[in-house]
Amino acid sequence: MVDALVPGMVAQMRRNAAYLCIFLLGAWAWGSGLLPGLLERWEDIAYLGQQHVELVALSGGAAILFGVPLGVLLTRPRFRQVGAAAMQILNIGATIPTLAVLALAMSLLGLGNTPAVFALFIASLLPIVSNTMAGLRDVPPALLEAARGMGLSPRHTLLQVELPNSLFVIYTGIRTALAINVGTVPLAFLIGGGGLGELIFTGIALNEFGTMLAGAIPTALLAVLIDFIVAQLQFWTIPRGVNPLR
Amino acid sequence: MIRLDQVSKTFPGTTMPAVDRVSLEVAEGEICVLLGPSGCGKTTTMKMVNRLIQPSSGDIFIDGRNTSDYDVTQLRRSIGYVIQQIGLFPNKTIEDNICIVPDILGWDRRKSRQRAAELLEMVALDPGVFLKRYPKELSGGQQQRIGVLRAIAADPPVLLMDEPFGAIDPINRVIIQDEFLKMQAQIRKTILFVSHDIDEAVKMADRIAIFRNGRLVQYDTPDNMLAHPASEFVSDFVGGDRTLKRLQLLTVRDAMIADPPRVRAADSLQQAAAAMEAHGHQSIVLVGPRGRARGYVNLQTARGGNGTVGENYEALPTTIRPHEDLRTAVSTMFRYDTQWLACVDDDGMFVGYVTLRGITHLLSETYRDG
């Protein structure tokens, strides 16, 4: 019971803390005349925010579409040997700072959105693949034996037993990946990508506090919003029998 | 129905076979318990039947057809499978768990859900309450009941059960065993049942197969196994109290002396004494006008006594029904410090009596013949 509650409570507290911070920041921003300043820059924010979302959607979406099947593949019996090695590589890969990944991507693919999307894709891929593999490996062996003994095909077993029972861990990987992703997109500005990073870094360079916040606040809001959306998906799409949140 | 012919299994990297030239046949509708210590090959033998383990040599036939001629998933779908860890799918409701095999076989959904409800009723779980629940909301005993229902949902003729009740507490285990036997009396599946518990084997089995080091050392009915163990290993395994264990295989009816002489309330003690002496009995039962057992009279009381039986009888300490097992009968005798019990049918009519002497005689008969 306690085990089931803790992740839910932590997520709830995290969310509440985020809301509180945003509220305090907003109040302070309005009082100090920053928020009216933000509204003045609304056109920039909307335009760059859209770019930001596009970068997240492209790189994050690709990471999910590629990472989950890759994780599944690496846990199949015929790739089990490769899987162990791949897990090691992924763990080492996860320690590379995302800024370094961006720099490497730039050196390979030049400037612009392409290397940015590629680097974000790589940075988001790691948690998704490793969580998918961990989730699938944690499925109790008794379930697999029962499935095999009853004559479920490997495809049935994957779709009806393995994936539903590891979905929670997979979702957690996706949430981690998207949080990293949204937070890393501003760095894309450094290699010529778009996004709200443009306002942040311009603000820093020109020592314009208002401009910097015009990038930072929407980035923070976006991170919270995306995490909230995935959390809702996680809550509603995982069957009640294996969902520790309900 | 299930026939193993010289089946062996040697796992890669080992020289000793895990299963060594095992042949046995299980008749339709029978429960065969594979029994033996850990590592004796009983589970391996069972898993070769649905080809979870591929035999190294030998053939296995189900209903006359070699299992290696089947497509392996088709074979497994036609064989129910119950494991000790239960293995219900936690992401599915009880209903969907029961209907897994019907669903992959493409049964009509309404028909399979209807069947799930009927099956739940068979094990006295209210379908209205349980169908939509998830496994984690059930107790261990309830979960294993569902595990068994899941195995029989698609009505396979053959069931494999791998220590199915091993993880359930002793009290619930007895209940679920009884329930399963009652269900088996209706569904008449051919069952291979792995166990390491001799008491469970004696209770569940039509035949017991005892394994040692991959070899089948004895294949016999429980009563023969207990009465005539083929080797010292078997006799050690079934236990020093094996003759006592046979008591639960026999019913009161087996040892009962049926239709003995009886007296009525109006009969004189002299008549009672004469009836006892004529049959060599130490006591005689008094029956009421319709034949119900009312009490009894001892030979000593009757001899030299005056008056009628109705004025001199003693109450029966207790009675027993003919379908109860002899273990219960002996236990009842010990409890009431008596050497005999009157047997009555479900309506209380006196049908015979059973004596401790008669029981010991019955148990030792098989040894004299053998």
Topology (SSEs and partners):
The complex is a heterodimer of chains A (246) and B (370).
Chain A (H helix, E strand, L loop, with lengths): L1 H30 L2 H7 L1 H33 L5 H15 L3 H12 L3 H25 L3 H9 L4 H35 L8 H9 L3 H29 L9
Helix pairs in contact in A: 2-10, 3-6, 3-8, 3-10, 4-6, 5-6, 6-8, 7-8, 8-9, 8-10, 9-10
Chain B lengths: L1 E8 L9 E8 L4 E5 L6 H8 L7 E6 L2 E2 L5 H6 L1 E5 L10 H5 L1 H5 L4 H14 L4 H4 L9 H13 L5 E5 L7 H18 L2 E6 L2 H7 L2 E6 L2 E6 L1 H6 L4 H7 L3 H5 L5 H4 L1 E2 L3 E3 L4 H11 L3 E5 L5 E6 H4 L6 H4 L6 E2 L5 H11 L3 E5 L5 E6 H14 L1
Parallel strand pairs in B: 3-8, 3-9, 6-7, 7-8, 12-13, 15-16
Antiparallel strand pairs in B: 1-2, 1-4, 4-5, 9-10, 11-17, 13-14, 16-17
Pfam families (chain A): BPD_transp_1 (PF00528)
Protein name (chain A): Osmoprotectant transport system permease protein
Membrane topology (chain A): Multi-pass membrane protein
